[in-house]
Design a protein that fits this description.
By secondary structure, the protein is of the alpha/beta class. It is built from 15 helices and 17 strands. The chain has helices spanning about 30-35, 45-50, 70-80, 95, 105-120, 140-145, 150-165, 180-190, 200-225, 245-270, 275-280, 290-295, 350-365, 390-410, 450-465, and strands spanning about 25, 85-90, 125-130, 175-180, 230-235, 240, 300-305, 310-315, 325, 335, 340, 370-375, 385, 385-390, 415-420, 440, 445-450. Helix 13 (about 350-365) runs parallel beside helix 14 (about 390-410). Bound molecules: beta-D-fucopyranose.
Length: about 475
């Protein structure tokens, strides 16, 4: 089916501030697309275990098959070319490299990523490789409780060294961690993600040990591959007060420290946010000055994942935290309420949030080089007669990209943008029902269909060249 002609720039100076070498890409992660979880010596990950627990994943979905990308990557790279992608952000499954988390290397796993990255390079697509996108080897959870144990920072760095030794001749852009906040908070505080724990001290401990692991890994990569560019990817979700009440304003400020600045401050300023550290002292892990030095090292770029904004209100009865985030929560479905639009995740469409994040980084964090490593939206897409018409996703992407362009005009050093996601995939606890892709995946037949938004994005990239 021929796609309709979309006007990308007509009427909107969408890309005029972005330089010609701006990087346009799309992102995925290993667990969400690969499938083949039991193949070629891959060990189990905490997500394989978690998805077997009753009621944890919507509709009992699991990642065993996912998009079968492990087998279909050549076809998927051909689709990336049709989207005109210049870069592709993927992640390495740690349990494919070390089935037991450490010790014996599984060469079949490394070889798979060699083939994949070779084929990307042959297609003229630059691989951006994330080293930890939440799929911790189960063996390390059994032995160390994952990042709850301080030794995990060094174990992570050893794993990273193995990957960089194996792929460093091909891959020049590395991302140590994806969203340490989500792995710490959803995995260890709310219990919604693997490994499903609920503890406040667990949250802070896992956060600190991940960041320490980032610092150690960064040193290893620098030593092994001086020509590589290394960054870390953080989610940034601006939190606004739910009302004009002073207490809600306090709650929003505190929540921003708890969620956003808890990663930015140690990485870019060498210290944890003071208020959080003070109020949470009973739950705080051991943090030495040497730890902070290790975490606070120059980055080549800061990866930012941004989707939406949230609200905070003061709640005296919530122990210690005292704030409730997203008080006016919307069910996980598309909605329009009082002129506010929500995606299928229930996340508000609010492109000003992108501007706010980039402005904050410019004004309060010395304007680092930023790459938007994820931005996108899930909508209730339908495949009809071989076509997915998804104008809401096009609107979403257009409005957020316009803010990236505007921020660049205002002086932000933003150098790249990746859509989440290349294709529909296993959306963690939400399973396969939530579709974020530029490419539709029909899971039973594994047929791929480029959505209208995919054609739109391809044109946008072509027009910008
Ligand atoms: C981010 C994750 C990514 C994906 C999107 C929707 O938090 O990094 O894997 O699930 O959200």
């Amino acid at each position: 089916m021929t796609p309709t002609k979309f006007s990308i720039t007509a009427g909107v100076p969408l890309l005029n501030a972005l330089p010609k070498d701006f990087i346009w890409g799309a992102a995925t992660s290993a667990l969400q697309i690969e499938g083949a979880t039991g193949l070629d010596g891959r060990g189990r990950s905490i997500w394989d275990t978690f998805s077997k627990r009753r009621g944890k994943i919507r509709a009992g979905d699991h990642p065993e098959q996912a998009c079968e990308h492990y087998h279909r990557y050549s076809q998927d790279i051909r689709l990336m070319r049709r989207l005109n992608l210049q870069a592709y952000r993927l992640s390495i499954a740690w349990p494919r490299i070390f089935p037991r988390g450490r010790g014996r290397i599984n060469h079949a796993g490394l070889d798979y990523y060699k083939r994949l990255t070779d084929e990307l390079l042959n297609a003229g697509i630059r691989p951006f490789v994330t080293l930890f996108h939440w799929d911790m080897p189960q063996a390390l959870y059994d032995s160390h409780r994952g990042f709850l144990h301080r030794d995990m920072a060094a174990i992570f760095a050893d794993y990273v060294e193995t990957v960089v030794r194996g792929l460093g001749d091909r891959v020049k852009d590395w991302i140590t961690l994806n969203e340490p906040f989500e792995h710490a908070a959803l995995g260890h505080l709310t219990g919604d993600h693997a490994p499903g724990r609920r503890s406040l001290s667990g949250y802070f401990t896992v956060m600190h040990h991940q960041l320490l692991g980032h610092g150690l890994a960064l040193q290893r990569i620098r030593a092994l591959a001086p020509d590589a560019r290394v960054g870390i990817t953080l989610s940034q979700t601006p939190i606004h007060p739910a009302s004009g009440r002073q207490r809600d304003q306090w709650a929003a400020g505190f929540a921003n420290q708890l969620i956003n600045r808890i990663t930015l401050d140690p990485l870019l300023k060498g210290k944890y946010p003071e208020q959080v550290q003070r109020r949470m002292r009973w739950f705080w892990p051991k943090v030495t000055a040497a730890d902070l030095n290790c975490i606070h090292q120059p980055l080549d770029f800061l990866g930012i994942n941004h989707y939406s904004c949230e609200f905070a209100s003061y709640r005296w009865y919530i122990p210690f935290l005292r704030c409730w985030i997203n008080g006016a929560a919307v069910a996980e479905q598309e909605a329009e309420i009082d002129g506010r639009r929500y995606t299928a995740m229930g996340w508000e469409v609010k492109p000003e949030g992108m501007a706010e994040v980039l402005r904050m980084l410019r004004q309060e964090y010395a304007n680092p080089e930023v790459i938007i490593t994820e931005n996108g939206a899930a909508f209730e897409d339908q495949l009809i007669d071989g076509r997915v018409s998804d104008p809401k996703r096009i609107d979403y992407l257009r409005s957020y990209i316009a803010e990236v362009n505007r921020a660049r005009a205002d002086g932000s050093n933003v150098t790249g943008y990746f859509v989440w996601s290349l294709m529909d995939n296993f959306e963690w606890a939400a399973g396969y029902q939530k579709r974020f892709g530029l490419i539709h995946v029909d899971y039973p037949s594994q047929r791929r269909t480029i959505k209208d938004s995919g054609y739109w994005y391809a044109r946008l990239i072509a027009e910008h060249k």
